């Protein structure tokens, strides 16, 4: 009987915490019009500790969305504009000599925050990209001889422009693999853009500040709750069937998804279930996030590029072939 009571308490907790996410979305929507997909995935990144790569042209509210999410949670937000002359120390920090004391002091870089927006990450050379991505992987930074743990929660949102190619340093596949999700951000719909015009064409100075919906501690509690989301063996096998099919011999796939993809797909599916108010994963949870998890992890062959076949096309084919649990 005790187990049943505990289960009932847990389900109730999932439903109540799910309402927090609904309130968070509503508060963010006071500033962000449309882009529900991007907002949900950024929240997903915060709740799972998974970093996000955004691909979209400038002006689609990527920076504003990240800043707004941070504001509604009351956590730190910093933005770095990546440029060809950026140095690793500009991100991580450096040692500065203090003439008065005769000692070196540490000046921490912008990476010491909760949400870091790495704008146009493919504008900086590989050495700078590696410095950031290594910090993302290890959740720590070494400056001089001292290693510092990064703050929690820590989320990197990196953006890249799909159009401009001159003066860019594309992220290698191994580095892209460190991002849990890759999103393709589209233009707002006509009615949404009309609302954007109406809202942002007037002075917004006197608007009330956004309410803090979640606290830092609540975020960490939600992470623990998401860890408890139940994943049936059939769902695990469904995920593995999808991942392993990307590795099968295919004229259009040069390299399939790594084990990181399996981990990311499970984590994202559990978070999706939680955000829907459930404490168990269903196949639709997996299908709703699989494109974001896999689109940057499937390396296309020359044949695919020649025939204009995208990773999304291949993911669709895989989903059609894999049997539902």
TrEMBL record:
Domain of life: Bacteria
SUPFAM superfamilies in alphabetical order: P-loop containing nucleoside triphosphate hydrolases
Keywords, ordered alphabetically: ATP-binding, Nucleotide-binding
Domain ATPase AAA-3: 51-181
Domain ChlI/MoxR AAA lid: residue ranges: 250-318
GO terms assigned for molecular function: ATP binding; ATP hydrolysis activity
PANTHER family for the chain: MAGNESIUM-CHELATASE SUBUNIT CHLD, MOXR FAMILY PROTEIN
Record-stated family: Belongs to the MoxR family.
Protein name listed in UniProt: ATPase
């Amino acid at each position: 009987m005790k187990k049943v009571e505990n289960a009932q308490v847990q389900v109730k907790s999932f439903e109540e915490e799910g309402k927090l996410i609904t309130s968070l979305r509503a508060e963010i929507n006071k500033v962000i019009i449309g882009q529900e997909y991007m907002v949900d995935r950024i929240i997903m990144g915060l709740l799972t500790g998974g970093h996000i790569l955004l691909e979209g042209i400038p002006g689609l509210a990527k920076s504003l969305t990240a800043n707004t999410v941070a504001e509604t949670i009351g956590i730190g937000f910093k933005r770095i504009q990546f440029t060809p002359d950026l140095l690793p120390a500009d991100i991580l920090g450096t040692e500065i000599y203090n003439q008065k004391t005769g000692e070196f002091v540490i000046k921490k870089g912008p990476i010491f925050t909760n949400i870091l927006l790495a704008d146009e990450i493919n504008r900086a050379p590989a050495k700078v990209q590696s410095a950031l991505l290594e910090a993302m992987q290890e959740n720590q930074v070494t400056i001089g001889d001292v290693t510092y743990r990064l703050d929690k929660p820590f989320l990197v949102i990196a953006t890249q422009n799909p159009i401009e190619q001159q003066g860019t340093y594309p992220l290698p596949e191994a580095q892209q693999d460190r991002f849990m999700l890759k999103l393709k951000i589209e233009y707002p719909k006509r009615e949404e853009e009309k609302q954007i015009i109406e809202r942002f064409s007037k002075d917004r100075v006197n608007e009330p500040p956004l309410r803090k919906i979640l606290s830092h501690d609540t975020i960490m509690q939600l992470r623990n709750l998401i860890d408890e989301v139940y994943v049936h063996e059939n769902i695990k096998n469904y995920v593995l069937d999808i991942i392993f099919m990307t590795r099968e011999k295919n004229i259009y796939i040069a390299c399939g998804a790594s084990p990181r993809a399996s981990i990311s797909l499970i984590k994202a599916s559990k978070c999706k279930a939680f955000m829907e108010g459930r404490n168990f994963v269903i196949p639709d949870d997996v299908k709703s996030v699989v494109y974001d998890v896999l689109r940057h992890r499937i390396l296309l062959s020359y044949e695919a590029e020649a025939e204009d076949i995208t990773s999304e096309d291949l993911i669709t084919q895989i989903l059609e072939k894999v049997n539902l649990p």
